[in-house]
Amino acid sequence: MQVTWAQDTFRSQDDLEGLIYATLDEFLAHPTKENLSIFDAIENNSWRPATQADEHLALCVLYSNEGYYRMKYGQVTQAIQAYEKAWIEGKGQPVESYDLIDYVLIPLANAYSMIGDYSSAESIIQLYLQKAQKNKSREQQITALINLSIVYKSTGRVTNAIDLLRQAEFLIAPEQVDQKVRTLVNLSHAYLLDQQLELAQQISAQTQTLFEQNSVSDLLQADHWSNQASLYLQLEDTVSAIAATQKALARCKELQEIEPRRLAKLHVQLGQLLMSTRRWVPSKESFEKALHQLIPEWNSGLPHDSLLYAENTLKAAMDGMADVLVRLGQFKLAMGYYHKSARVEDQLAQHYNYGKSILLQQGERRQRTEKILYLLYQQYQVVPQTQLAALALQVAERTKAVELRQQIASYDADSSRRKWVRRQAKIEGELAQARAKGSGARLEEIQQLIDQQNHIRLEANTSGSSQGILKRSLLDLDSLQKRLDRERLQLWAYFVGKQAYYRFEVTPHSVTMHRDTAVYQLKEDSKSLLHFFSSPEHINERPTEYAQVAERLGSQLLGDTTPSQLMVVADGLLNFVPFDALLTETAVGMNYAHWPWLLRQTTLLHHYSAQLYQQQRTSTSGDHKLLGFFPEFAGTNLHLQYSAQEASAIREQIKGQYYSKEKATKRRFMEEAKNYGIIHLSTHASGGYLHDPPAIQFIDSTLYFPEIGSMELSASLMVLGACETGLGLLYQGASPQSLATAFVQVGVKNVLLSLWRVNDQATAELMERFYQHYHNNAYPYQAIRQAKINYLDDTKLSQEKKSPYYWASFIYLGAPDQIAPATSMAWIWLSVVLGGLLLLLGWYVYKRGLI
Prior knowledge:
Elements: H1 7-12, H2 16-29, H3 38-45, H4 53-72, H5 76-90, H6 100-114, H7 118-135, H8 138-154, H9 158-171, H10 177-193, H11 197-213, H12 218-234, H13 238-253, H14 260-276, H15 280-294, H16 312-327, H17 331-349, H18 355-382, H19 386-397, H20 402-412, H21 415-435, H22 443-463, H23 477-487, E1 490-496, E2 501-506, E3 511-516, H24 519-532, H25 537-541, H26 543-558, E4 565-569, H27 598-601, E5 603-607, H28 610-615, E6 626-630, H29 643-653, E7 656-660, H30 666-672, E8 678-682, E9 685-686, E10 695-697, E11 702-704, H31 705-708, E12 717-721, H32 739-745, E13 751-754, H33 760-777, H34 780-793, H35 804-807, E14 810-813, H36 825-847
Parallel strand pairs: 1-4, 4-5, 6-7, 6-8, 8-12, 12-13
Antiparallel strand pairs: 1-2, 2-3, 9-10, 10-11, 13-14
Helix pairs in contact: 2-4, 4-5, 4-6, 5-6, 5-22, 6-7, 6-8, 7-8, 7-22, 8-9, 8-10, 9-10, 10-11, 10-12, 11-12, 12-13, 13-14, 14-15, 14-16, 15-16, 16-17, 17-18, 18-19, 18-20, 20-32, 21-22, 24-26, 29-33, 33-34
């Protein structure tokens, strides 16, 4: 349908507001799905941008109506875009002009939740909750508290959700029956998630009483019965759970207009329940009904890619179909549905504004991936073909370092995208600094920063700067193997699932696949090993116990033999395991130097993803100058006594700019780091805690994880000579949210990082050895290995100081690049003097006739 209004008349009168309302009226006269295209025409028909307040308000009304109808017709992602534009146009308007909370912000946050972008949903809800409190609107406050509780439940913060719902209860008036029911349904579900079954049952009974005494909408009754089904399932009463779900479906069908998505969700829930009772065919039929609701054009078989769209319920229906098809023995079709579900998930991720939302999505992707790996392994056991192992590796790789790959892609993108990312990172850094003040934090300052964050994000969305961030292309195995051949490496990639763990061994000419169901033992041994490194005394107090765990874990992870040079792509908790400190056979005696460390057998490199390694650019040629920071913190309880010694030893080897004591400032680092090929930080750092981001200290202030995102670096090597620089929050399949990953995502190619709280003296000695070897051969991954071996073989060190606690913390993350350091003048003069002495000695010997 085309806009039929006299556009020339509006143009001649410069009446943009009139054109906007006329366009909206034309759509509302026939508000069909086909006529949604009329909204696309408004921007083409406008002869200038809106400049007057009334024009901005008109666009706000237009876009909010577009969002409403796109939601009605199941176009959730397009609805989000419309609501975001409505917010941009209307945020400066007076409250009495148009209720932005009811017509824009509430549906926008709901739409974010529907696609699983809970970080964006939370941000918007917090925004309108603050506005509702300021306007003293009880109804909007209640809505905000309930909706925020749903986000908290969905992201594992159940206790916070219960607190919010109790606050909402306090605000609800006796006559607000629907709000009371909605609150109680969510509260019962929250108690259920919190394993407080008795309270969940009590609240559910209270809800049922309200139904009997009041007129409650069919939709809310459906929500109650859906929650009741979850409660029955927790009580292991599957029959009652199925009956409750069927009641919920019946209530929905009573409605004249019902969103297809709601019906589809209930069909998915019923399919899952039927599958748990081994009723495979009825379960399959239920999933098919869900797919018919979501894809009316679909008949049977695998839906064509053109029919897929970003929708969480569609993803769940695809996964359900795949699961039940496995039970029916239709493995090929099941694999197809798993892949279709992954495509839907990719489309969802394209619309996420925060990396955290992608991380939260990882759990579902990992579960699906493990199911696919099992199907492929079943075939691989029958016919162990390289193609099957390669396909399995590619599937596993799609779950690796997802957010890190997204961030790197963002920094490699066009300038507008980079600008948006850095603006966001700057605000997030300021938020981290504000929150770090603890009780001294100004809530007003924090809220202002959150408002700025929302504004920047919405601006970017409406301009298209934040779209199309994530590209989950398959690992290019041919390119990977060519690179391994060129760099004389093998690559071992791990996938640690819930039912089993996998090891993929990639050589320049083959790919093999190994599976082991002893995953619980692997995780327990990993935790035990890491506990030994939580204190310098632990290994020395129980060396025999450590040796047993290190040997057992080595056997699980390494098999019978290891290559001379190995790239390790770890997974999950294995990212924190010091592979160098694993044992390849039983240790004899108590002399650490004589133990069979993997360190002595294999040169190790690490990466967070085989794809990142395959795509990593080779470091630039030429001599690289070093930028070093050594705050020392003399005269404080943070004093690094051996940092000056470390700086002096490095300065003798490599030319560069060295800042010590009061000159080692954060401001100087932020300004100068982009100009250097090698960066060395000798200071204090922390891997962060649950609510505190990783951080690294300078003499004047602290640099937090989010702030690093505003930088643009090109260093070929960064040496993080501080504690816990490789540690951080760990989501399933993601790289650790560490300082090391933060620097990698902004352009650093290779990093020397630490896995625990390192000892100051041992670090200084290790770094001195590292730079000596690095100066001689220009390969940092080889230099750190040789430094560790020299440390172990040093007869001047006590037995206790040779514990792996002191030497195994630092690992090399990156490619085996040759990174030539610029030779220091001291070394040049020393070379000249030594060369001169040798010439004089030769002349003397010649003249004396000694040769």
